Amino acid sequence: MSSRRQILRFGAATGIVAASGAGAGYFRTQAAAAEVRPAPSATPSARPVATPPAFSVPLSVPPTLRPSKVTADTDYYEITIGKSHANIVPGARTEVLTYQGSYPGPTIRARSGRKVVIKQRNHLDEPASVHLHGGSVEQASDGSPMTPIKSGGSQIYTYPNLQPHANLWMHDHTHHLESEHLYRGLANLYLLTDRIEQSLPLPSGRYDVPLMLSDVRLDSKGQLVYEMDDAFNRTTLLVNGRPRPYFKVDARKYRFRLVNTSNLRMFWLSLSDGTPLTVIGADGGLLPAPYETERLLISPGERADLIIDFSKYAPGTQLILKNDLPPGDPSLIGEVIRFDVGRKVRDTSSVPATLRTLPAVPEADTTRQMVMYMDEVGAGTNAFLNGKAFDAGRIDIDIKHGSTEEWILTNTSQTIPHNFHTHLVQFRVTGRNGGPATGFETGLKDTVLLWPGEYVTLRATFDTYRGVFPYHCHMVDHSAMGMMAQMRIA
């Protein structure tokens, strides 16, 4: 993870506490870029809308979807992809895209070793696909960018769930549409559990709460405005689709499952009173042991599992989860959610000193270099992996089934951060900028952040399914611009 020293140094370039050292000029340079790019049309519908004051609406928790059929070894679901409306701004009906009419989509709870089969029906007037982010699945159910569900059609996705517990999530992956579809709401959680996780006395039930973080740009009618690579104007922060909500909590421990579903925004999170966050998990499930941190950095596609203990606070205390990372006016993007502490209740949960045992990182059979880069100020909107933009007809690397590979990822962009996500496998981060992995990068990961000039080393073993799978930047606008490639496992 980026160190606190790097993040503070990066913030010095902007006048706001921001992110990592290698990209010290990032937001300053991006501000200059905004000046030279054509401004959006100044029509009345394009003007920003006043968002509700912070903490004026309650948090909504996405519903848990129930199976339409259950057999001895399989849960079956039916989901409709379509348009709906959400009350993002009081008094406005904002058109959004939804899974099963829910914004964000409903949570699916699955168990390792028990199959899930989902029939997805596409009621949009354009193609859509569904990718289980972090899931180990066959190629036919991966939600390939090039094999979407046609408008009016349907597709069966089969998830064997042979992997250990993990906080997975689902989102659209239709090439050239994935960025806008995700932005408009096509995302939901898929929480996979197993005996290891279930055996631990962690907070559960209504004290286990998903928090899906995102950001949007709204016009004067409260409608979503989508433009590619529009990070500076997406300054309405949402949690579970609600703008900077409040959440009433009992004075006890809670488990919060965070997923950053935004296209480009990174969050640098902390509690307003300075109490450290207890981090217990990352993309691929629980860490070997919990750790405490004053601030947590989470990039698009990444997940973080947190414990917050409200028992030390008196009833009536208001505690804010802050974001110290631009772009945007700190008065708009500096506060994410407020926790309103209520009565003390009995709490039998605890956080064990040991959460799980991960196998040793295997030796690599092959080492590859991967370079991420995109056009910068005034140079267009092309993005590349190893000097090439995505081509669906090209296989970029061939991987021997059963082998372990080491990938050295480098972000050679001078001002723009990227992050890296690979389908099919969870990986282990073995180093960052020559040092060891730290924080939640010590667990299983499928998405990792790289600031300008940084390099990260990871290892993954390809011993599950054969086929063709993508890997790409998960700052999704960059992926849509071409920062994506394909691997073939055979």
Topology:
Elements: H1 4-12, H2 26-36, E1 69-70, E2 74-86, E3 94-99, E4 108-111, E5 115-122, E6 131-133, E7 154-159, E8 166-171, H3 178-183, E9 187-193, H4 195-198, E10 208-216, E11 236-239, E12 242-243, E13 246-251, E14 253-260, E15 267-271, E16 277-282, E17 285-293, E18 296-298, E19 303-309, E20 318-323, H5 330-333, E21 335-344, E22 366-374, E23 383-385, E24 397-399, E25 404-411, E26 418-422, E27 427-432, E28 444-445, E29 447-450, E30 455-461, E31 467-473, H6 476-480, E32 484-489
Parallel strand pairs: 2-5, 4-9, 10-14, 13-21, 22-25, 24-32
Antiparallel strand pairs: 1-2, 2-3, 5-7, 6-8, 8-9, 10-11, 11-12, 14-19, 15-18, 15-20, 16-17, 16-19, 20-21, 22-23, 25-30, 26-29, 26-31, 27-28, 27-30, 31-32
Family: Belongs to the multicopper oxidase family.
Subunit structure: Monomer.
Organism: Paractinoplanes ovalisporus
How would you characterize the overall build of this protein?
With about 500 residues, the chain is mainly beta. The protein has three domains: about 70-200, Cupredoxins -  blue copper proteins (Immunoglobulin-like, Sandwich), CATH 2.60.40.420; about 200-345, Immunoglobulin-like (Sandwich), CATH 2.60.40; about 365-490, Cupredoxins -  blue copper proteins (Immunoglobulin-like, Sandwich). It is about 10% helix and about 40% strand. The protein has helices at about 5-10, 25-35, 180-185, 195-200, 330-335, 475-480; strands at about 70, 75-85, 95-100, 110, 115-120, 130-135, 155-160, 165-170, 185-195, 210-215, 235-240, 240-245, 245-250, 255-260, 265-270, 275-280, 285-295, 295-300, 305-310, 320-325, 335-345, 365-375, 385, 395-400, 405-410, 420, 425-430, 445, 445-450, 455-460, 465-475, 485-490. A seven-stranded mixed sheet has the order 12-11-10-14-19-16-17, with no helix packed on it. It starts with a helix and ends with a strand. The relative contact order is 0.15.
